[in-house]
Protein: Probable sugar-binding periplasmic protein
Amino acid sequence: MGATQFNHGRQAEELVQSGLMRDLTDVATQEHWKDIIRPSSLLDSCTIKGKIYCAPVNIHSWQWLWLSNAAFKKAGVEVPKNWDEFVAAAPALEKAGIVPLAVGGQPWQATGAFDVLMVAIAGKDTFQKVFGDKDAKAAAGPEIAKVFKAADDARKMSKGSNVQDWNQATNMVITGKAGGQIMGDWAQGEFALAGQKAGTDYTCLPGLGVNEVISTGGDAFYFPLLKDEAKSKAQEALAKTLLDPKTQVAFNLKKGSLPVRGDVDLASANDCMKKGLEILKKGNVIQGTDQLLSADTQKQKEDLFSEFFANPSMTPEAAQKRFVEIIAAAD
Structure:
């Protein structure tokens, strides 16, 4: 194949180290990627030993709570403004036959929800200590205990979701079968496709309405090293096209994510995208866990939270103990 997509960060690290991916440094230099890509951490995540191996295409952030305005109206409660109000509204939603929180059965969804809860409840510094510094003592501390308590609330609220894919969970929110979903900004593509309008049909709370922070992870294209000269030329054309201002606008408006270029016109962005752009402008950002943790550590986290969300008998205390062991051994 000529190109493949990963989340920029450490997912493709071993492929690059094995010599399977093409060095894009020449293309990046010609196109002045270092001058146009913001934040610079995106290009840093594509860089191994001084060479650039991927083309960032968007900033997608996990830290969003998507709410169905119709579901809360049916339940007779106000649309929540933060996580605590959402938890408090859960009984009214359940009484109206609505699942409070839609969570799909794939392990990465439960893991992502936990990571979002961590930065919202424990804050940026603790998030960085645990995932950036691999601080097992911080992972065992009272701040993370609060996060596991919130994850326990989320687990109870998600009972009855009975879907697998993330977009099926989003559809539960779109159709009013669920009150909300913790999911990245790519969920906006589903709302747009369903003809729903931000601020009217659905509400978005960055940082769960608690800590308005977004992660600057996202999608990036890598290019396998090929011997075919014509295909290699085509790789260069695709890499340049991905960063073209027109591509950046068209793609990100469809996906609901943010452009990696700070010099593009997003006047037609919806209310939720504008919130994300404002947070980005203020610099209230963190790196994504794909950037901070190896693929192996991420998989261990997924195994833990898949079990935690599926097994109500696992206590928050027991889950936290396993989490500490994962962080202590993280690379």
